[in-house]
Amino acid sequence: MKMHEIIIDKEKCTGCGMCKKECVAYNLTIEEKKAKAIANDCVMCGHCVAVCLKGAIAISGYDTEPIEKEQETFLNPEDVMNVIRFRRTVRQFKEKQIPQEVIEQILEAGRLTHTARNKQDVSFIVLDKEKDKVEEYAVGFVHKIKPVMNLFSPMIRRNKIGNHFFFYQAPIVIVITAKDKINGILAAQNMEFVAEANGLGVLFSGFFTNAANVSYKIKKILGIQKGKKVVATLVIGYPKVKYQRSVQREKIDVKYR
Asked: If we measure between CA atoms, which residue out of 83, 98, 113 comes closest to residue 193?
C-alpha cells in the first residue's frame, strides 16, 4: 500500500474547525486560525477531506481525486426493503455474458466499501477464463473429502457433486479476499446490491469459500495474497428463473434496553 500524507492548503483553510471535530484520530488541531495535522500516523479515513467546506485538505498517494457531491442522494426506504425482502439466491443462470462495464461497476462497489480502521485490505479475483479450470479442481477436491463431509452435511450427502457444483455455469465468479473477514463481507454485500441493480442474480458460494481456504492448491491457483483469506465467493449471472413472491421469516428476535 502506498504511503499517504495529510496535506492542508493554508490559502484555502479558514480555520473553521470542522475537520478537527470530525477527526476520529484526534490528529488535527487549529493553530493561528489554520488547520494543522499533529502527526502522520492516523488512519487516513478521509473524513477531514470529505467535510471541509473549502476543499482545503487532501491526502496524498492516491491515483484519483475526491469527487465533489453535487446534490444529496437518498435511497427510497421501501425500495431498499423490497430489494431485501424479495432477494433470492440464484442457481439457474442464462447463457448470457455480463458487459465489462457492469463487472467493473460491481468491483467498484467493493473497492469503495468502508473498512475497519481504513485498512482497505479487500482484494478481488474475477474468474471468467479460468473459471471452469478452478471449478474442476475444486470439484475433484470435494470428491476426495466427501465421505467426511457426508457426516456433517445432509445436503452434501444427498448431492452427487456434479461438474458445476460450485458455479452453476454462471458467466463470472468474483472471489473476495481480505485480512479482516468483516471488511470482505461488507464489500460483498455492497457488490450484491449493485449486481442486482443491474438485473443480475447472485449466489454466495459458501462451499467454494470453504474449499478455497482449506485447499493449498486452490489458494495457489487463485494467487491468494499472504495474510489474506477467502471471505466470500460471488457467483453472478442473469437469472433464468423469476421468483413470484417473498418467503416467510421467523419472528424478529430483538430487545430494547
From this structure: 83
Which backbone phi and psi does 34 adopt, to 5 degrees?
-135, 145
Closest CA to 46 of 150, 111, 117: 117
Cα separations in angstroms, 242 against 80, 87, 89, 142: 19, 11, 11, 30
- Return the number of other C-beta atoms located less than 10 Å from residue 57's C-beta: 24
User: Position 227: which residue type?
Assistant: G
pLDDT in tens, 90-132: 999 999 999 999 999 999 999 999 999 999 999 999 999 999 9
Query: What is the per-residue DSSP string for 177-228?
Result: EESSHHHHHHHHHHHHHHHHHTT-EEEE-HHHHHHHHH-HHHHHHHTPPTT-
Amino acid letter, 225: Q
Q: What is the pLDDT of residues 155-207, one digit of tens each?
A: 778 877 889 999 999 999 999 999 999 999 999 999 999 999 999 999 999 99
Could you tell me which of 110, 112, 119 has the C-alpha nearest to residue 43? 119
pLDDT tens figures, 234-249: 999 999 999 999 999 9
CA distances from 87 to 146, 167, 199, 230, 245 (A): 30, 19, 12, 23, 10
* Extended beta strands in 88-204, E state: 123-127, 172-178, 201-204
